[in-house]
Amino acid sequence: MSSSDGPEPRDQPRETSPYVELDRAAWAALAAHTEQPLSAEEVERVRGLGDELDLEEIQQVYLPLSRLLSMYVESAGALHRKQQDFLERPHQARTPFVIGLAGSVAVGKSTTARVLQQMLAHWPEHPSVALVTTDGFLLPNAELERRGLLGRKGFPESYDRKALLRFVVDIKSGRDEVLAPTYSHLIYDVVPNQMVAVKRPDIVIVEGLNVLQPAPVREDGRTGLAVSDFFDFSVYVDAATSDIREWYVARFLRLRETAFRDPASYFSKYASLSTEDAVAEARRIWAEINEPNLVQNVLSTRSRATLVLRKDRDHSVRYVRLRKL
User: Fold this and answer.
1) Cβ atoms within 10 A of the Cβ of 210, count?
2) b or e along 256-273 (b: 16 or more beta carbons within 10 Å of the residue's beta carbon)?
3) Is the distance from CB of 186 to CB of 264 less than 8 angstroms?
């Protein structure tokens, strides 16, 4: 059995667990009387390549989650006001509520982030929701190549971790505008001198492979700050490793028929592969890069999440695990 086949042993007595676990039906019932705000067209826009996302999934999984997150945001606002009263300071706008969202390559975390961004923005209490992916904080390909890390792209050492930490610190410091670098999946690289401005939204979603990692240990044995130290809530999108591998291969084949056919694509060399060769290449990339990164770095951060969405083989969320308060 793969090490990612379950967040924890399922036969563990629930009363001794720090989590509340709800199956799909129980979770869906929590928002049975809440109106689903997204239209079929909006769902189509946020759906990722190959993600099996429909209105039922939105209603049963993401509507309860957006309702829960909205409650957390409101509670953070109330606590902020009480803290200002305690400090005998005038009431000022609180800093953005930051949600970290992690998971493997091809597990569907980008789609989850886009769905949550759209759904949370429909709640009148927090209409401004920004989404930032950590891809923009990857070191440029030239620098990765110089360091011998191009084959380890997506591993923790391939990111400008100081810049990512500084970005989140600036967000939580209440700066009026914070800039984040942008990334192009077409050229497979950071876009030079192209930034996106985040201007004090109500909520910021930070999505990426390694956003829940603890701070690395320094040479002197001390640890500094981690990006996750500044998250108000965190989500881990989970599935069995064997399932994610098959989703990755299927996505690779779809890209071979679409984005890879663009001459400007970094991966255009794969467009002419036969189906058999494309499957073999996708499995090689998964085995040499993505699975080792998942096992060594990403999967270990699952237990740090506030909430885990566990997917089944058909991409649907099977159960939800929420940390107790």
Assistant:
1) 21
2) beebbeeeebbbeebbeb
3) yes
Tokens of 15: 């009363």
Query: 3-state class of 82 per DSSP?
Result: helix
Query: Is position 10 within any domain?
Result: no
The mean-pLDDT minimum among 51-60, 96-105, 220-229, 316-325 falls in 51-60
pTM, two decimals, is: 0.91
Question: Where are the alpha helices (H) located in the chain, listed in sequence order?
Answer: 24-29, 40-46, 55-57, 63-86, 109-121, 141-146, 161-172, 241-257, 275-285, 291-293
Total domains, the chain: 1
Domain limits for position 298 = 16-323
Establish if 9 belongs to a structural domain.
no
**Domain-located, residue 231:** yes
259 inside domain: yes
Mean pLDDT confidence for 35-54: 70
Phi and psi torsions of 28, nearest 5°:
-60, -35
Angle between helices 275-285 and 241-257 (to 10 degrees): 130
Asked whether 209 and 293 are in contact (CB, 8 A), the reply is yes
CATH number of the domain to which 265 belongs: 3.40.50.300
